[in-house]
Design brief:
13 strands; two-stranded antiparallel ribbon; single chain; alpha/beta; 11 helices; nine-stranded mixed sheet
């Protein structure tokens, strides 16, 4: 039996036969500003809630911004309310923050999260190995999931960008990361951009991968994210599975809801998913199909 790390999103469990397997490299692809970091931070918090340890390596967004998204999700506090004042008073009091943090800290069922920030283009797989080794020795931390945000901002330890083209460089980085996943019995999740043709598009495919087609060739799971302007307004994402070694579900589309206040993806019911997938734009019936969907929209 495969050693799986399940999702809190049942639609993703169904598509992968129970979650990502350990010793694998998985990648999400999206255009600029669509939500690559959003889905990775949402998955990070889901894994922590399920008791798994996560190492988050960010090469783009500041470490504190990643931590803030996790805090908003775990504490159920809208991300815009942290530090915000109205009429001279904090919207969320320091006492409330401390109480929520202590409850999280004392919850022995939660996994641990360690975030490491590096400047763009400054690390390779050898440095990631060194980080993993140091965390094991000094903090007794063993990552079940390693997230690299994102792969195109790394260097290869074997191939120089000065002498090789981007196809070979990115493919080499992907192979090195997958090697770490095998060594550590972990899942590595990363992301990549779409190319120029995919920017602003309402559909994704493997020919929309930027820089290197060698990346999807190496990964075990490759999934594109996209949304129309109307879907963005309603907090809807479409995930399209483009490669899937865990199951036979390829070119399968999954509709997911997103709550931007708490930076989390959530499960839509079957009827909502079917309606969204069947129509290019959100049908008016979807807005009022369930009380849960109405509640989330109102809170946003």
């Amino acid at each position: 039996k495969e050693d799986k790390v399940p999702f809190l999103l049942e639609a993703m469990n169904d598509a992968t036969f129970g979650g990502f397997s350990r010793k694998t490299l998985c990648c999400f692809m999206a255009g600029t500003g669509i939500g690559k970091t959003l889905i990775m931070t949402s998955l990070t918090t889901d894994y922590i809630k399920s008791g798994y340890n996560v190492l988050y390596i960010t090469l783009e967004m500041e470490e504190k911004r990643i931590a803030l998204r996790a805090d908003a999700n775990l504490m159920d506090i809208p991300i815009g309310d942290f530090g915000r004042c109205e009429n001279g008073k904090h919207v969320v009091s320091i006492d409330d923050l401390v109480e929520k943090f202590e409850n999280i800290k004392n919850n022995k069922k939660l996994g641990r999260l360690i975030i490491k920030e590096f400047p763009t283009g400054t690390i390779n797989s050898l440095q990631i190995r060194a980080i993993i080794k140091e965390l094991k020795q000094k903090q007794k931390f063993k990552a079940d999931v390693i997230i690299v945000d994102y792969i195109n901002l790394m260097n290869s330890s074997r191939v120089s960008a000065k002498t090789a083209n981007t196809y070979n460089v990115i493919k080499s980085i992907a192979e090195e990361l997958r090697g770490i996943a095998v060594e550590e019995n972990s899942i590595i999740i990363t992301a990549t951009q779409t190319n120029r043709d995919g920017i602003g598009g309402n559909e994704v495919a493997l020919d929309k991968v930027s820089e290197s087609a060698g990346l999807p060739h190496t990964t075990d799971f490759f999934c594109g994210l996209f949304q129309t302007e109307e879907q963005r307004e309603h907090g809807i994402y479409i995930l399209k599975i483009l490669k899937n070694r865990f199951a036979g579900n390829v070119n399968k589309k999954i509709a997911m809801g997103v709550d931007y206040n708490f930076m989390r993806f959530y499960q839509l019911n079957t009827e909502e998913q079917d309606n969204i997938i069947e129509n290019d734009n959100i049908d008016t019936d979807i807005e009022t199909s369930t009380p849960e969907f109405r509640r989330r929209r109102t809170r946003r």
